[in-house]
Amino acid sequence: MVSFFDNMKAMDANRYATKKTIAQGMLDIALLTANASQLKYILQVGEQHQFYKLMLILISLSIVMQVAAGILLVIQSLISIHNLKDRSIGFTLNHFVDAFIFFSVFCDVMKMNFGLDPAIPVQNKDDVEVFKP
């Protein structure tokens, strides 16, 4: 009878790393899509938004870091972990990807604290409440 641990030893580590990288890439695409939508909204509202410049900077930083992390993930997926030299390069790339994603999420948390809540109306120049779509 084959035990659970025997199956774990038989698991291909390269295949696991590839699947993990693909999953991280898909999450990055979802976050990038949300940021693009928020960027569109903040550009439509313009200077009327109380924190327009801050939001524009945070969203832009988040998008740049997400794109950089995505590029590094593609490069990382091309590296085989069976070669010792390639493995160390992969680990280094992984640390950079983690840092980019961490700072991107940090920017996202900060921007959500400064008012991209769809339930909060925005005052326009004519003192008419405009609800976010």
Automatic annotation (TrEMBL):
GO terms for cellular component: membrane. It is a multi-pass membrane protein. It is found in: Membrane. One of its GO terms (biological process) is cell adhesion. Pfam families: Ninjurin (PF04923). The keyword Membrane applies. InterPro entries: Ninjurin. Keywords: Cell adhesion, Membrane, Transmembrane, Transmembrane helix. Coiled coil: none annotated. The chain crosses the membrane at residues 52-75. Belongs to the ninjurin family. This is Ninjurin-2 isoform X10. It comes from Drosophila pseudoobscura pseudoobscura (Fruit fly).
